[in-house]
Automatic annotation (TrEMBL):
Pfam families hit by this protein: CX9C
Highest taxon in the source lineage: Eukaryota
Domain IMS import disulfide relay-system CHCH-CHCH-like Cx9C: 2-46
GO process terms (BP): cellular respiration
Lineage per the UniProt record: Eukaryota, Metazoa, Chordata, Craniata, Vertebrata
The protein, known as: CHCH5 protein
InterPro entries recorded: CHCH_domain-containing_protein, CX9C
PROSITE patterns per UniProt: CHCH (PS51808)
GO CC annotation, single: mitochondrial intermembrane space
């Protein structure tokens, strides 16, 4: 999923990455619009849609963790790993 997103939505990912790097304390608010752009772009791909459907629970847990710990994304590593494991199986 990440590879497909990078391939098909590279410009969106680049803009989001620059925003996150520029706003380490407030990226979750400052970059929200850009994150939605990535999601919209990625959702156009059938495999990404399947991953979002099949891995909705681990993805929601990861996103919830990021919201609860906005200044410490590293705290959410276990949730990210669980989502990536799920996505790899799709």
């Amino acid at each position: 999923a990440l590879e497909l997103t990078a391939r098909h939505c590279g410009a969106e990912l680049e803009r989001y990455g620059r925003c996150v790097a520029a706003s380490p304390e407030s990226w979750h608010k400052d970059c929200h619009r850009l994150r939605l752009g990535i999601a919209q772009c990625a959702s156009a791909h059938p495999i990404v849609r399947q991953i979002r459907r099949d891995c909705a629970e681990p993805l929601a847990a990861f996103e919830r963790c990021l919201r609860e710990h906005p200044g410490s994304a590293r705290h959410c590593h276990p949730h990210a790993s669980a989502f990536l494991l799920c996505a790899d199986r799709v």
